[in-house]
Amino acid sequence: MKLEKYAEITGWGKCVPPAVMTNDDLATFLDTSDEWIQSRTGIAERRVSAVGTSKLAQIAAENALACADLDPSELDLIIVGTCTADEIIPNVASKVQKALGATGAAAYDLNAACSSFFYAMHNATAGIRTGMHKKVLIIGAERLTRILDWTKRESAVLFGDGAGAMVLEASDEECGLLASKISCDSDARDVLALDFGLSFDRYNFDGVMDFNFEGQEIFKRAVKGMSAAVEDVFQQTGMTMDDVDALIPHQANKRLIDFLAKMCKVPEGKTMLNIQKYGNTSSATLPIAFAEAVENGMVKPGDTIVSAVFGGGLTCGAGIIKWGKRVKPLRNNQKTLEGNGQSALDLILPLHQGAKEALAKRNRKD
Question: Distance from CA of residue 189 to its chain's centroid?
């Protein structure tokens, strides 16, 4: 099929909850410290949401649409990447469609864990380049703090809530996602898993959602998977590391980001890093990072950007993105989520206590 169009990024935006959970806050109820967390992950704080994933997604979407000066009625597709949907049925995307008034858009969710947003970009770009779609809204949104076991230090310190979004529009200019590679290492799918959903016995549920997170194995496979994906997209385009202006990767661990920067030979100061502020927000890390990279001037018109992602499944992906001519929003895209008066600790401590009680109940039963 002849590819006649490119998928230009015309809008970008984010939504990060106002409640901040610092490492020192975590140390008040977990056996941890700021030094322990930062030395292993690079994370200093993360955000905790008092509202559902769909609301985070909606605000990020409104910001991206404002940035593109696009009316929601012009959209023909909405894709929401998430692994923390508000409900099993209906999907988050339909709720966002309704909230935006984007009645002409098809809407579906996509779950590839931390890779979800990039998978959505891959699919949306294919749809635009083949002429099936013209204006697509893609969103990565998560409320991970609701599914964590807050008694487990090794995973509880890593994640946070947030959302980011992009608008992709058909363009004759060579820009947007020029090459991409997505894959899945399913042999090791259980090293990052949440035992919940329709597999659990709802009549014998003890309140504990078992979250398996094998950090060393995940890191090893992430390095292998992302390296292979990055090499693949360079081969597709004929580009070399010398053509790269910026690296905007999934924000999972600073050590992993440093490895990618070294591998891609990205000049100092051209790797987007915001994990220290938000932790790992799964599918939301990439669009939040892009929004902030444009805001702080890291991304300039015509820049060539490399992105790489890795997530549960084990899903993986990488892409080469050519930024368009515009780096300024056409309308204000800084709408924020209002607080409800609760601090991050107010929101998390009941979850921590509930997890402790559920585990005690399970142990008594055993």
Answer: 19
Which distant-in-sequence residues (6+ apart) come within 8 Å of 248 by Cβ?
A: 272, 286, 289, 290, 293, 299, 305, 306, 307
Residue-wise pLDDT tens digits, 211-246: 777 778 888 888 889 999 999 999 999 998 889 999
Q: Which residue(s) pair with 163 in the sheet?
A: 15, 141
CA distance 290 to 122: 16
| CA–CA separation, 172 and 297 (whole Å) | 25
Domains and CATH numbers, the chain: 6-365 (3.40.47.10)
Cα–Cα distance measured from residue 251 to residue 253, given in angstroms and rounded to the nearest whole number: 6
Rounded Cα distance between 226 and 318, Å, is: 7
Cβ contact 270:298 at 8 Å? yes
Residues with catalytic roles = 114, 250, 280
pLDDT tens sequence across 46-91: 999 999 999 999 999 999 999 999 999 999 999 999 999 999 999 9
- What one-character-per-residue DSSP string does 86-101 give? S-SSS-HHHHHHHHHT
Whole-angstrom Cα distance, residue 132 to residue 130?
A: 6
State the CB neighbour count (10 A cutoff) for residue 200: 13
Question: How many Å is the Cα radius of gyration of the chain?
Answer: 20
